[in-house]
Write a structure and sequence with these properties.
6 helices; 76% helix; mainly alpha; 151 residues
Length: 151
């Protein structure tokens, strides 16, 4: 079950990233990324969270992995021994990185950046979300300062 969900969420995210990187940014394409990509991943995340926290599913859960509100390093490490928790966490990353990628693409389009200039930032966001966001924030700040406009 968990490998199937993991694979499906990866396919959804990859398809949405491909749309962002390679297709014209028309309303239907952008809506597809938002609703068939981000919203679908958020829905999967929400359902998995409820099912895992309530104990309704997690057939391969390690005996020592207990769900708790222990947000210490040891507590988070204990949660990661569950395949379900790993898939949940991965889905969380996929959804948020894709959301950030969509925001960067829309913001870059609005500010007149070419798709070629956007591609490295979007690829970095896909591979290392916070780094891609940091790079984009630095680029947009520099452009705003150079033009005398703050956005």
């Amino acid at each position: 079950m968990w490998p199937t969900i993991f694979g499906a969420t990866n396919l959804v995210a990859l398809a949405a990233w491909a749309i962002l990187l390679f297709l014209p940014r028309r309303p239907f394409a952008m809506a597809s990324v938002l609703y068939l990509g981000i919203a679908l991943l958020c829905l999967v995340y929400t359902v998995l969270l409820v099912l895992l926290v309530t104990g309704a599913v997690d057939p391969v859960r390690d005996a020592g992995a207990a769900w708790s509100a222990d947000f210490s390093l040891a507590g988070i490490k204990a949660l990661s021994r569950s395949d379900g928790a790993v898939v949940l966490g991965w889905t969380h990353y996929l959804a948020f990185d894709l959301f950030v990628g969509l925001w960067i693409a829309r913001d870059a389009d609005a500010k007149g950046f070419s798709r070629i200039a956007q591609a490295p930032v979007l690829l970095t966001t896909f591979l290392a979300g916070p780094l891609g966001l940091l790079i984009w924030l630095a680029i947009r700040e520099r452009r705003a300062r150079a033009s005398g406009r703050w956005a």
